[in-house]
Amino acid sequence: MPDLPELNPVVHGRLRLALLSLLSGVEEAEFTWLRAKSEATDGNLGAQLLKLEEAGYVAVEKKFVSRKPQTLYRITEAGRQALTEYVQALKQLLGPAMDA
Amino acid sequence: MLDHINEQELKDRLSLIESMIAEGRRNTQSWGWTFVLWGVAYYLAIGWSARGPSVWAWPATMLIAVIVTVVVASVKAGNHPGTTLGRAIGSIWIALGISMSLLFLALGLSGRLTDQHLFAAVMSAILGMANGASALILRWKVQFACAVVWWVAAVAACFGTDAQSTIVFLAAIFLCQIVFGIYCAIAEAQKRKRRGPIHA
């Protein structure tokens, strides 16, 4: 019997997984857009984004637009790779149950 | 770490990934209001023209519709992130808007906008092209059905009486602008309602 793959604990968190998936479909996204899509609280969202940033899975850019602060998040190559590997591991774990 | 993770939870994770990627990429359904706005603008222009020949009916109505679209879109766009797909779809509609504005402004001001069959055929064909291209990129059957309706309207406008041509054109506007726009808006609202908050 082949060894079962490990699920990356950083990606596995439900909100972190949602954020990485959201960011994988866009070039970059504002904090407010991520909050609207995930419907998470500011505190929770900020904490999970920080964990992703510390893991090198998202890059953050802070700037001012019309004198208003704007925080932009972008998935990194490492983040995209981690998400891809996570999906592959999920599919391997589910095996035949995928089609059920 | 996997001992306590059951099969259903793993499936939920896959489903979450799919829905979030789709959420990020989805753009067109948020634009339902523009279809309705432009449908109403077409009706207003047709109604204005029907009251008597006017070189300003189409140019003025289209110009106002462009201004309203740009203002509302810039407010709504706000923090919406850019995607390659979104830019592709946006490019089609911006190019359509510029083409139609220039063409009908020039035709209106030059006084050559007199053949209503030709006008309805050209307008329907252009709208069919834009809806068809957008539908093929998005693989969206409902929008492709709209494109087919516009193409049928373009061909039908070349035949029949003035009254028949007008009825077909008005019906195409109703189906592909008003009904499709409301459908998009409802679909968007339902999607927002269905999805609950995501917890860590």
Overall body shape of chain A: elongated
> CATH H level of chain A: which superfamily?
Winged helix-like DNA-binding domain superfamily/Winged helix DNA-binding domain
Please report which band the strand proportion of chain A falls in: under 5%, 5-15%, 15-25%, 25-35%, 35-45% or over 45%.
Answer: 15-25%
Low-confidence stretches of chain B: none
Helix/strand/pairing category of chain B: mainly alpha
Main sheet of chain B? none
Radius of gyration of chain A: 15 Å
Which short descriptors sum up this protein?
heterodimer, A: 100 residues, alpha+beta, Arc Repressor Mutant, subunit A, 3-stranded antiparallel sheet, 5 helices, 3 strands, elongated, B: 200 residues, mainly alpha, 7 helices
Topology:
The complex is a heterodimer of chains A (100) and B (200).
Chain A: H1 9-12, H2 14-24, E1 29-30, H3 31-38, H4 42-54, E2 58-65, E3 68-75, H5 77-94
Antiparallel strand pairs in A: 1-3, 2-3
Helix pairs in contact in A: 2-4
Chain B: H1 7-25, H2 32-50, H3 57-77, H4 84-110, H5 116-138, H6 141-157, H7 162-194
What does it look like?
The complex is a heterodimer of chains A (100) and B (200). Chain A is of the alpha+beta class and 100 residues long. Chain A has a single domain, classed as Winged helix-like DNA-binding domain superfamily/Winged helix DNA-binding domain (Arc Repressor Mutant, subunit A), CATH 1.10.10. In chain A, strands 1-3-2 form a 3-stranded antiparallel sheet. In chain A, β2 and β3 form a beta hairpin. The longest helix of chain A has 18 residues. Chain A is elongated. The mean pLDDT of chain A is 88. With 200 residues, chain B is mostly helical. Chain B has one domain. Chain B is built from 7 helices and no strands. In chain B, α2 runs antiparallel to α7 and α5 packs antiparallel against α6. The longest helix of chain B has 33 residues. The mean pLDDT of chain B is 84.
